[in-house]
Known about the structure:
By secondary structure, this protein is α/β, with parallel strands linked by helices. Helices cover 27% and strands 21% of the residues. It has helices at 22-30, 68-80, 99-109, 121-128, 159-163, 177-186, 216-222, 240-243; strands spanning 7-11, 33-36, 53-56, 59-60, 63-64, 85-89, 113-116, 142-146, 167-171, 194-199, 207-212, 229-233. A hairpin with a 2-residue loop joins strand 4 (59-60) and strand 5. Helix 2 (68-80) crosses helix 3. The longest helix has 13 residues, at 68-80. The N and C termini lie far apart (59 Å).
Amino acid sequence: xxxIGTVFLVGAGPGDPGLITVKGMDALRxxxxxxxxxxxxxxxxxxxxxxxxxxxxxxxPQKHRLSQETINESIVQKALEGKMVVRLKGGDPFVFxxxxxxxxACREAGVPFVVVPGVSSAIAVPAYAGVPVTHRGVTAGxxxxxxxxxxxxxxxxxxxxxxxxxxxxxxxxxxxxxxIAEQLMAAGMDGATPALCIEWGTTDKQRVVEGTLxxxxxxxxxxxxxxxxxxxxxxxxxxxxxxxxxxxSSP
Length: 251
């Protein structure tokens, strides 16, 4: 009888290949199968064994190579064949990475799994743009939310609560910036609140568009900002003028 393999849900970090954890790299180098996302740095695949099976599960907006259901089935099936599977995911697997769904699929199939947390884009991408998500005397906290809303989802974004929070970090949904701004301003947030968009953060393709809550959507459109992009809203954005260290320029 074939021994069941283990699935490792590995966070690859936000784009810079140097940000993967030591534990994540160790798992990647030992894996029989690597199922990878498009936001995982391509350079990381060079660390896989030469005989490892590589499966592209990359997802682009409105264009998925594999559905989530197919990905779940694939990692489970490979593990049931006795293989060590690494599910290589951008950022952290449990921060809007659907890693929880994949872990549940493994649990339901009786497949053992290990979660290897990754550096989340929610903090790393702003940091590479010179923006600390918290700063003494400016804000005592930050809130991360998905800006890619699905009207069929049971849980929706509470813009009223967000408008009263500290720093806001919006993942995904760059196409919805105008709606986000309108909802936040309608909930009482000042349109003059500093805000910026970071495209392909932590990579050599990083671009930053800076404005205010009221102007950012238009500026991002004019600059043709495309996914993956992260939006940061709050007074901490003002610190970029002195803390920008990565050499990213505004278009």
